[in-house]
Amino acid sequence: MNREEFAASIDHTVLGPETTWADVRTVLDEAAAHGMNACIPPCYVAEAAEYGSDPEAIATVVGFPHGQHAPAVKRDEAVAAWEDGADEVDVVINVGRLKAGDDGAVADELSDVVAAVPVPVKVIIETALLDDAEKRRACEAAVAADADMVKTSTGFADGGATVADVELMSEYLPVKASGGVGSYEEAAAMFDAGAVRIGASSGVAIVEGYPE
């Protein structure tokens, strides 16, 4: 992977609860300058699409961060994000439903989101809250829903991406490793484990760490 391809595999992210439009503009500008994607809160997608910066893609989140929105709300949120200009959506599964064994409900709500928008859908399974068997069931639900990618973490649980989780998840779908990836070396380890995308608030540092 050359530097340009590497940068285009990074989702430079700002999703904290205190995120302002000024914060989002900074991320958009940095993403555009370094050839990265930007992952931003849904409330700013319309402004980002009009802003005039040019990241590789604008991603946003759905059902974030806990995944407990009603299924229809997740679907409508995804549609609104796409209509506002999002190029990709990252949707959080309902972890409680999964843990209760209601995998059908998890897959059905993901299917509704995937069917509702003509853009790639990544499924955030929140690995820190799941054991390996549950991670596999979450990935199977994403496959059943025809999702494009699975993603490790929201960044709001106690834990983030690990090499072991990326290896497990990549058995099912392409993986976005997100949560705790802060350097080029850490990103490279995730790619080596099978990830195809990295989500990180440290996107600039990661790209600038690419060896010359």
UniProtKB/TrEMBL annotation:
<comment type="function">
    <text>Catalyzes a reversible aldol reaction between acetaldehyde and D-glyceraldehyde 3-phosphate to generate 2-deoxy-D-ribose 5-phosphate.</text>
</comment>
<keyword id="KW-0963">Cytoplasm</keyword>
<dbReference type="GO" id="GO:0004139">
    <property type="term" value="F:deoxyribose-phosphate aldolase activity"/>
</dbReference>
<dbReference type="InterPro" id="IPR011343">
    <property type="entry name" value="DeoC"/>
</dbReference>
<dbReference type="InterPro" id="IPR002915">
    <property type="entry name" value="DeoC/FbaB/LacD_aldolase"/>
</dbReference>
<feature type="active site" description="Proton donor/acceptor">
    <location>
        <position position="90"/>
    </location>
</feature>
<dbReference type="GO" id="GO:0005737">
    <property type="term" value="C:cytoplasm"/>
</dbReference>
<protein>
    <recommendedName>
        <fullName>Deoxyribose-phosphate aldolase</fullName>
        <ecNumber>4.1.2.4</ecNumber>
    </recommendedName>
</protein>
<comment type="pathway">
    <text>Carbohydrate degradation; 2-deoxy-D-ribose 1-phosphate degradation; D-glyceraldehyde 3-phosphate and acetaldehyde from 2-deoxy-alpha-D-ribose 1-phosphate: step 2/2.</text>
</comment>
<feature type="active site" description="Schiff-base intermediate with acetaldehyde">
    <location>
        <position position="151"/>
    </location>
</feature>
<dbReference type="InterPro" id="IPR028581">
    <property type="entry name" value="DeoC_typeI"/>
</dbReference>
<keyword id="KW-0456">Lyase</keyword>
<dbReference type="Pfam" id="PF01791">
    <property type="entry name" value="DeoC"/>
</dbReference>
<dbReference type="GO" id="GO:0009264">
    <property type="term" value="P:deoxyribonucleotide catabolic process"/>
</dbReference>
<comment type="similarity">
    <text>Belongs to the DeoC/FbaB aldolase family. DeoC type 1 subfamily.</text>
</comment>
<keyword id="KW-0704">Schiff base</keyword>
<feature type="active site" description="Proton donor/acceptor">
    <location>
        <position position="176"/>
    </location>
</feature>
<dbReference type="InterPro" id="IPR013785">
    <property type="entry name" value="Aldolase_TIM"/>
</dbReference>
<dbReference type="GO" id="GO:0006018">
    <property type="term" value="P:2-deoxyribose 1-phosphate catabolic process"/>
</dbReference>
<dbReference type="GO" id="GO:0016052">
    <property type="term" value="P:carbohydrate catabolic process"/>
</dbReference>
